[in-house]
Amino acid sequence: MNNENNNINSDDGVTLFSLVDILFSRILLVIGVSLILSILSFVYVYNQTQSYKVTIPFKEINKSKLTNFIEINNLLNVNGANEVEISSEKIFDIFVATFMNKSEIYDTYYNKFKETIINTRDLDVTAKNKANSFNISVNLNNIYPYKIEFFTSNPSEDLDLISKSIKKINGQVYNEILFELEAVTNSLKSENNRQTEKLKNDLIKRKNLYLKDISIKIVTLREQAEIARSLNIFENSKNIVNALKSISGDIISLEKFDYLRGADALENEIEILERRNPDNVIDYDPEYANIQAQIENASAGLESIMNIEKSISQMKIKNDFLPVNINTRQAYFEPVGQRKIITLGILIIVSVIFACVFSIFYDNYQTHRSTKK
Q1: Distances 329 to 163, 167, 221, 333 between C-alpha atoms, Å
Q2: CA 261 – CA 225 distance, rounded (Å)
Q3: Cα separations in angstroms, 87 against 29, 35, 63, 98, 117
Q4: What is the spatial distance between Cα 14 and Cα 28, in angstroms, rounded to a whole number?
Q5: Which stretches of 117-154 are DSSP H helices?
Q6: Residue 300 half-sphere exposure, CB side, CA atoms within 13 Å?
Q7: How much of the chain is helix, strand and coil, in % rounded to 5?
Q8: Cα separations (Å) of 158 from 51, 120, 170?
Q9: Which of 342, 211, 291 is nearest to 299 (CA)?
Q10: CA–CA distance, 368 with 240 (Å, rounded to integer)
């Protein structure tokens, strides 16, 4: 039994050495096949398109860039429009919403691809697919809390195109902010004008009422002065009026007894009323002064609103505000799938193994042919 086992082990050793001997005898064939397959593998691998995951980290807008809006925010607060205050958070939210809308990115790629894609439908689908591949996500535990991510086989070209898109998006965000400010300013101005007009109309009504009362008073006094003259009452009979008041207890109107004051007193009062400044309503109507003060405040508010309009116009002309600054030079690439060098190494190993197996089969085939002959 032991002899049989020794014979089996001996046969296995001989077989293994014979295979090695075959490979050495066919070394040129092994090298040749390996070299041909390795060259084909190299050509195959480097003709394959490598895809990358590109990440561009960025921060939200720096508050120091909001200097242009400080004065406008102050003026808005003064005019009671606190909810429209322009803040870095608000600008960043508008930027993210505009970016995720993808319309600017779509337009950029549409214009790029129309040079090579003739069919309009294919062009539209390709541009949409490309635009939808861009996303903004939160990048926690990093000095750059946000990042733009996308997949591409040509990072440099896509970085250039996304940079152009971001510039357009920033412009759109800036215009949207100015448009909102203009809308708020126009609303404040309309409300201010409406309120001022209402106050002025109220003043006119109160003044007309005052003048009407004065006119009626003058007519009444003249009638009483005529009665006084007809009764030869020229001196002030104030005591009689007071006596009547004490008797009546102010229940009856004493205007019909004004003639008792005497014609001279009545004519003096008429003269005073006629010489009175028609605009001096304050003594007659205490609320008149309060309304005048409100009109003055409204005028000051209108001037403040006009200053906001002026600031917005200047910002439109300058157009030098960059809401979100994204530096594409900070982008980093991560290959998707296996790296080309790893793939090439695996294919070369497979090529050598295939060459060895092929050489052994070829040698056996040649030996079998020789034995047959």
Answers
A1: 10, 15, 92, 11
A2: 9
A3: 75, 65, 8, 17, 42
A4: 23
A5: 120-132
A6: 8
A7: 75, 5, 20
A8: 12, 21, 18
A9: 291
A10: 160
The vertex-100 CA angle with 97 and 102, nearest 5°, equals 120
d(CA 340, CA 45): 6
Question: Residue 372: which H helix or E strand, with range?
Answer: helix 340-372
Strands of 115-241, DSSP E: 135-138, 146-152
Closest by alpha carbon to 223, among 252, 254, 259? 259
Q: Which helix (H) or strand (E) holds 334?
A: strand 332-336
Amino acid letter, residue 309: E
Pair 262, 233: CB distance under 8 Å: yes
Q: What order do you get walking across the sheet with 135-138 strand by strand?
A: 135-138, 146-152, 51-58, 332-336
Per-residue pLDDT of the chain (373 residues; tens, 9 = 90+): 444 444 444 444 447 777 777 777 878 888 888 888 888 888 877 777 778 889 888 887 766 667 767 767 776 766 665 556 677 788 888 888 999 999 999 999 999 998 888 899 999 999 999 999 899 888 776 777 888 998 888 888 899 999 889 888 888 888 888 888 888 788 878 888 888 888 888 888 888 887 888 888 888 888 888 887 887 777 665 555 555 455 444 444 445 666 677 778 888 888 887 877 766 766 667 777 788 788 888 787 777 778 777 777 777 777 667 777 788 888 888 877 666 777 778 888 888 888 888 888 888 877 777 776 5
Task: Write the DSSP symbol of residue 49.
Answer: P
Rounded distance between C-alpha atoms, residue 289 and residue 239, angstroms: 36
> Dihedrals φ, ψ of 174, to 5°?
-60, -45
Distance CA 176, CA 168 (A): 12
Q: For residue 283, give the DSSP letter.
A: T
Q: How far is residue 61's CA from residue 63's CA, in Å, rounded to a whole number?
A: 6
Neighbour tally for 236: CB within 10 Å? 16
Determine contact, residues 230/329, Cβ cutoff 8 Å: no
∠ Cα 307 311 314 (to 5°): 140
Count, in order, helices (H) and strands (E) of the chain. Answer: 11, 4
